[in-house]
Each structure stands twice: as C-alpha cells, then as structure tokens.
Amino acid sequence: MNVDWQLKKLEDGCIHGEVRMETEEMSHICRQLFFAFARREKALLQMTSKKANLEDVFIELTEGDIAKPEAEDGKEAAENSTEEKEVEDQ
Asked: In a 3-state reduction of DSSP, which class is residue 21?
C-alpha cells in the first residue's frame, strides 16, 4: 500500500496531519488511528476521510502540465518568426 503523509505544526500548538492512501479499508484504518491516539491520551480534534472523485484525480495529474503547452507554443512561435526573418533577409 502506497502511503503519503505530511505533518504541519500550527501556531496554536496543534499539529495538522494529512495522510493519502489508496485502500478499500478506509473506515477500518480511521478507527485504528482513533484508538491509537486515544491509547496515548492525545486528542483528535478532527478526522475526515475523503474519497477523490475523477475530477480531483484529473486536476492532480494534469496540474503540472498546464504551462508546458504554452511554453512549447511560444518556443515554436519564436522559431517560426526567426525562420520568417531569415527568409525575408534572403
């Protein structure tokens, strides 16, 4: 199982944690986390589970690719204008 997690300490002393994983046993894992914190007498102020929809997955996968086509188009436009200038100079 691939798990990605991040922890961030907030100004009020709380810790914000985010865990991402692909599993069909989300409720079981949430329950295990809850009791693990309870055994250590640590309060969980909020815990939510979210199943990504197709739109979220698409946005995440294509987020870094948005600037690439524009950059390539700009590069091609610059190359074309250079070629046109060379043709005019001849």
From this structure: strand
